[in-house]
């Protein structure tokens, strides 16, 4: 009897199950290979007293056809057998020099998850497929087998095949695994894995496969991706960080946070020259404002453009902060005071709540000499070109958070909003940089979420984690952008947070 073992597979149950609650596809495959094949071969040899292997059985119809085509009899068996091996991606040299491993690999793939009867039917059907031209012309079966092999490969369950076959090899089972690993990339149509594409990550675009994806970042069907492993130059299932950071290259700035390309709920941080998994505290993509201040060089200046602290329900110009909002701002000021005692410049939008945010930060840091300058360009309507149209979209498309984030990250509503790049540069260069000489080394500008979100979209090249229209994530109170001006006049931007998280 065949030994049955359950194998955890990064796919779907028997090729067709659902993904689990965490979003990672899982399944349990049945591993019977290759005992049924060996039983079938034994039955056949007992019936006609001939020695036969799996490739002989598969090539029998092809032998008949070649004889009918007047191929010399002394050549037909060799040709047909080579063609049967080639159907599984095995060349004549491998067949000649490593026949034991080849036979075991082909036996396992022929049987895959099938019963004895199904295996017999498949042998007959594949033989008939090979008969006419020596080619395997059924992509559906190739992909079904490839899916099964990937399940074994992703968890290295080849040992189940090896253990089942051990009695037939006197315990000395050859290295058959390589031929199974080399089969599935052929079935999926991947380019050969070699030095030129080592490290490349790809996906299955064959719709018959349980690992099919519409495109690399589309995860509705499968989250499984494949990497050309530089160690041995073979395709294998990519791990989470390999597939999620593929194509990232170097981060645009230290501690940049990016969402995973496949697992969109995973976040990665560029740290010390490499991408790593971000901690939950890092995953929002915002750096603590105090840390940015602490690491500011003596010849650098910084402008913190942040949303006001927690407000009341009054969103008009005269609306105040809550008591907690005032407390949060004072606590931020106190944390800043532990880094340095220099006086800050403060600017506000003209709204009461932005004034109170600046005021409480100054008081919290113990700054006695401060003035809070009204800055009209810090108004939340900075990006609005047509207020009536912006309001109409807000009312019709799910609210301001949807509309303003969709505008910032997708360029939607061009009739209501200015071009993002042009308007952002007007703010950063024409308003802030043009007046930096009249400010201090450290500057805090308190504004509104409707300005901060599009600005984050622009300064992070679309990487900021505040795409409310897509992810239901919005900028938190006292979060925004740090604009750091170097001594040579160059500028870099870092998303910053004044509270524990930068998103809400």
- Provide the residue-averaged pLDDT: 90
Radius of gyration equals 32 Å
Percent of residues in helices:
25-40%
Q: Looking at the chains present, what oligomeric state does this protein adopt?
A: single chain
> Which regions contain 5 or more consecutive residues with pLDDT less than 50?
1-28
CATH homologous superfamily descriptor of the largest domain = Phosphoglycerate mutase-like
Number of domains: 2
Number of helices: 19
Overall geometric form: elongated
Strand order of the largest sheet: 9-15-14-10-13-11-12
**End-to-end distance:** 58 Å
Number of strands: 15
Biggest β-sheet strands, sense, barrel: 7 strands, mixed
Second CATH tier, the architecture of the largest domain? 3-Layer(aba) Sandwich
CATH topology of the largest domain: Rossmann fold
Strand content: 5-15%
Alpha-beta classification: alpha/beta
Description:
The structure is a single chain. This protein has 504 residues and is an alpha/beta fold. The chain has two domains: 5-190, no CATH class; 284-497, Rossmann fold (3-Layer(aba) Sandwich), CATH 3.40.50.1240. Helices cover 40% and strands 13% of the residues. It is built from 19 helices and 15 strands. The chain has helices at residues 35-48, 54-68, 73-86, 92-97, 99-111, 116-131, 139-154, 158-165, 177-181, 183-188, 240-244, 289-294, 323-337, 352-364, 387-396, 400-410, 420-432, 449-459, 468-471, and strands spanning 5-9, 27-31, 201-202, 226-229, 234-237, 257-259, 267-271, 274-277, 287-288, 301-307, 345-348, 372-374, 442-447, 479-485, 491-497. The strands form four sheets. It has a seven-stranded mixed β-sheet with strand order 9-15-14-10-13-11-12. Strands 3-4-5 form a three-stranded antiparallel β-sheet. A hairpin with a 4-residue loop joins strand 4 and strand 5. It is elongated, with a radius of gyration of 32 Å. It starts with a strand and ends in a 7-residue tail after the last strand. Residues 1-28 have low confidence and may be disordered.
